[in-house]
Amino acid sequence: MNPQQSDLQRALADLDARLGRITAEVGEVRAGLSALARQSGPAVAGQSPVESPWRAGAPAQGPPHLVTPAPAGAPSQSAPAPARPGGPWRPPGQDDPTGRYGPPPAHPDRPAHPDRPAHPDRPAHPDRPAHPDRPWQQADRLWQQPAGAAPRRSPRRGPRITAATVIAAIGGSVMLAGIAFLLVVAIQAGLFPPLARVVAAAVLAVVLVGLGLRLQSRHDAAITDPTAHTDPRAASDPDGTPVNPGALALVGTGLAAAMLDVIASTTLYLWIPVPAAYMFVGGLALGGMALAGRWSSGLLACLVSAGTMLLAPLISTGVELPIFVAIVGIATAVLAAELGAAVRVVWSVLPGFLLAGYLSQAALHSRGEQIALIATALVFAAVGVGVAWFDTARRRPALANAALVVVPTALPLALLPATHLLRPGWPVGLALAAAYLAVAVLAGRTGRDRAHVLLAAVTGFVGSALLLLTWVELGGRELTGFALTLSALAYVVSAGLWGRRWVDLVAAAASVIAVLVYTAVNRPHLALSDRLAVREFTYWDVVSAFAVTALAVAVTWWARRRLPRESTRVMMAGAVVALAAFSVMVVAAGVVIGDLTGVARNGFLAAHLVVTVLWICCAAWLVLTVNPRIADARRLGFVLGSLALAKLLLLDLATLPGLFRVLSFIAVGAVMLAVAVRYRRETEPSGSGSPT
Questions:
Q1: How far apart are CA 363 and CA 361, in angstroms?
Q2: What is the DSSP secondary structure assignment for residue 111, as one 8-state letter?
């Protein structure tokens, strides 16, 4: 072979290898462009979003054919060599270790490659993976989609905060502040007449909304036009629908300006009746939220709602202000509650605190204004609960976003029982608490997932807080303490029967509050002094002590179910507390009965004698009872017997006079002797069977 021809063949082989690498890199770029095109928008039916630079007029596989000049001394060729299925032409006899140029010619001493098909003209199996050294085949497989296959949508992502979004939000806020200053500062400076101010603000609002809608329509046309689909970095919302941040800012600013203009026309100039102004503001808010939902834009919803709520106090401070703000919040909750946590915070927190502030000073307003504030608070709270329920059942948002809107929307309701128009307010507070507790029970029974459990917990806590505030407004310290004890008893029973964590927490908190209030109001320690007990104890002390006794028994039963390993200690502590509360009830009852007969002190002494005998008898019964858990019962009996003996020696000996002291010592001694005899018969080694 001519050495020059051999060198030329090696040069051509090296050139072909470089061309193969370039082809592989182009295939990778083409695959990346195809993935980017699928993300930026749906492909036009029948053609790919991005055309390959050599796809038109080129073979289906492989790069363009390479035309090699004939070497010196070789016969000239007027047409290129036929294309091979694996790639461009390669010189005959040239080794192809990578397999880039198709199957090598058969060699008698070289075995066939296991990864290459025996017949080069036969197409590859569709399930067989492409050769790793042929990346352009992988790119073609990624590029081609089956006929009729729908494009795969990217998963839903969170809202992206870009520089354009930040600039649009700041610009819209500044523009709204300028419009508010136009309506307010111009009044103080006397720059324009009222009609000019209102008309200028209205014209500016219309212009802003029109410009925003036109800008968005042009943006949509540019995005949907196949010839203009050249910029994959177009601003879009999380759903992939193209949205222009500037259009959002313009439309949101214009709608908020229109609502501020309506508020100014109503509260400052009295040109629009208040009911009509409520309707206008509600309609504008609903339109803005419908557009925000269509564009899936939390920025638009925040501009419309937060812009109006924050700047409205600059225009008006009358009783109409919280109603306007609540109307905007309700419209946002109905149509745009699913657009993010920021939207939920705006529509629930701002109106809630504003309504609570005005209700705290409801006595300064007229009867009609108080009725309007109360009705607004009730509707706002109902919308909050309804949206939270719908979110929990249907939308599956974040747990906090779905349920915690109940708390700020219920804040104004906490002030309703104290409103002067609703005196006495405890029936209204009781009805509201019952409504929230009913929602908690329904949410807990309807679903078992975390969202329903959280909704039940939040509404249960809110209902419990409203119930506590209702009892505070009930009037009378003793009656309030008794009502709190009964509420705690109901919660404990519900916790023991239902088995929900939030009910356990509420039951524990309610029990602690009830015991603390009972200790502070009824002062059970007065039972240790005859002078103070005779002077202070009334029938309310009897009723309250009995309720605390029932509460102690219920807490012991509930705690034993929740803490089975600590049942012995729980039983001992609960029995001691219940017996102590019952003893206070006995002493208070003795004082009340003695006071009815004219000898209140004798009733006190007789009650203490009964308490001592009661304690020692309970101890004897526990020691001698036949129970599978005999050791625990006897241990508790020994504890109560020790306490009874300590009371006899430390309290009765110093308090009870003459005959009462003698009777107390004789009764305690007789019971202890009987216990000793019976206990010895049961525990002696020979055994005498069951006691008779």
A1: 5
A2: P
Task: Report residue 170 as tokens.
Answer: 């700041």
Cα angle, residue 281 at apex, residues 278 and 283 outer, rounded to 5°: 105
pLDDT in tens, 545-587: 999 999 999 999 999 888 888 887 888 888 889 989 999 999 9
Q: Is the pTM of this model over 0.70?
A: no
Helix, strand, coil percentages in the chain from 3-state DSSP, rounded to 5: 70, 0, 30
Using CB atoms within 10 Å of the CB of residue 414, give its burial: 0 to 12 exposed, 13 to 18 middle, 19+ buried.
buried
Of 77-91, 269-283, 636-650, least confident by mean pLDDT is: 77-91
Q: CA 110, 113, 117, 121 torsion: positive or negative?
A: negative
Confidence of residue 488 (pLDDT cuts 50, 70, 90): very high
Q: Which helix (H) or strand (E) holds 163?
A: helix 163-189
Q: Which long-range contacts (CB under 8 A, 24 or more apart) does 539-543 make?
A: 539/592, 540/478, 540/479, 540/482, 541/478, 541/584, 541/585, 541/588, 542/585, 542/588, 542/589, 542/592, 543/482
Cα 567 from Cα 573, distance rounded (Å) = 10
280's tokens: 């206008």
Between CA 259 and CA 90 the distance in angstroms is: 76
Is residue 142 within 8 A of residue 63, CB to CB? The reply is no
Calpha distance 135→129 (Å, rounded): 11
Helix axis angle for 341-360 and 367-390, nearest 10°, is: 150
Cα–Cα distances in angstroms (integers) from residue 211 to residues 206, 216, 252, 288, 579, in the given order: 8, 9, 11, 15, 78
Beta carbons of 328 and 259 less than 8 angstroms apart: yes
Whether the Cβ atoms of residue 536 and residue 526 lie closer than 8 Å to each other: yes
Please count the other Cβ atoms lying within 10 Å of the Cβ belonging to residue 144: 10
- Residue 69 CA to residue 553 CA, distance in Å, equals 106
Encoded amino acid at 223, one letter: I
Is 668 in contact with 613 (CB distance < 8 Å)? Answer: yes
* Distance, CA of 269 to CA of 195 (rounded, Å): 9
What string of H, E and C letters represents the secondary structure of 247-260?
Answer: HHHHHHHHHHHHHH
Q: Helices then strands (H, E): number in the chain?
A: 23, 0
User: Could you report the per-residue pLDDT of 148-177, keeping only the tens digit for each?
Assistant: 444 433 334 444 556 666 776 677 677 677
- Who has greater pLDDT, 668 or 131? 668
**CA–CA separation, 514 and 490 (whole Å):** 12
Separation CA 396–CA 134 (nearest Å): 46
Measuring CA to CA, which residue among 542, 569, 464, 547 is closest to residue 507?
464
Please give the full DSSP string across 66-78, using - where no structure is assigned.
P-PPPPTTSPP-S
Exposure of 461 in the CB half-sphere (CA atoms within 13 A): 16
**AA identity, residue 621:** W
CA 330 to chain centre: 19
- Nearest Cα residue to 257 out of 193, 328, 203: 203
> Is there a contact between 180 and 319 (Cβ–Cβ < 8 Å)?
no
Rounded (5°) CA angle 311-312-313: 95
Distance (Å, whole) CA 295 – CA 298: 9
Cβ neighbourhood burial of 138 (10 Å; 0-12, 13-18, 19+): middle
Please provide the DSSP assignment of 257-324 as one string.
HHHHHHHHHHHTS--S-HHHHHHHHHHHHHHHHHHHHHHT-HHHHHHHHHHHHHHHHHH--STHHHHH
